[in-house]
Amino acid sequence: MVLIKKRIIMKMTHIFVLFAFFLSGICTVSAQDNAKVNWIDFEKAVEKQAEVPKKIFVDVYTDWCGWCRRMDADTYSHPVVAAYLNDNYYPVKLNAEHKEPITFQGVVFENQNPEGRRHAHDLAAALLQGKMGYPSIVLIDEESNIITSIPGFKQAIDMEYILYFFHNDIYKDTSWEDFQAGFESQIRTE
User: Fold this and answer.
1) Which of 118, 117, 122 is nearest to 100 (CA)?
2) Which residues neighbour 127 within 8 Å (Cβ) at sequence distance 6 or greater?
3) I need a labelling partner for 118 at 20 to 30 A (CA). Which of 16, 27, 29, 91 fits?
4) What is the CATH number of domain 36-182?
């Protein structure tokens, strides 16, 4: 009888432990599913910036870019990255092949060949200073001046560095290498 009770208790303990792991997995997935950047269009970001000064973060992408889709899925969906972007920047997604005109700093930028295949919008070309690689990010200061553009796919931890470095104006008086050496990431790497 005692042996049967011990087996029942062991089975119940195993079931409880498995259930706890299952619940923790659901909570983790839910937290990641809820990690979402609140993207706005470029002109709206400039308009908001005029009311409440904040840097603008521009993700320049194309529909056909596989690395752009991967950055959406892996980087921008990370809770730390999404929260930091939403709290500290006006986050913009700009399709480099956008068809409609966009006004920035009194200039109307257009796609000179909107029906053409893979033809870049003039604003994307201006922001990227003609270096058309996707994905790329562009950081714009509170006075709508381009700080820098950074090409290529970035993992969440690398994006966290970039977001913090520019948002806090560390780039003005500290080298990237010195900053990275002393930065403590909130993102845990396995």
Assistant:
1) 122
2) 58, 60, 94, 138, 146, 149
3) 91
4) 3.40.30.10
Percent of the chain residues past pLDDT 90, beyond the cut: 71
The pLDDT of residue 113: 83
Q: How many CB atoms lie within 10 A of CB 149?
A: 17
Could you tell me if 125 and 131 are in contact, meaning their C-beta atoms sit under 8 angstroms apart?
Answer: no
Q: Are 154 and 71 within 8 A, CB to CB?
A: yes
d(CA 71, CA 74) in angstroms, rounded, equals 5
Question: What is the residue extent of each domain of the chain?
Answer: 1-34, 36-182
* pTM score of the predicted model: 0.80
**Rounded distance between C-alpha atoms, residue 136 and residue 150, angstroms:** 6
Which helix or strand (DSSP H or E) is residue 181 part of?
helix 176-182
Distance of CA 22 to the CA centre of its chain: 29
Which 8-state DSSP code applies to residue 170?
G
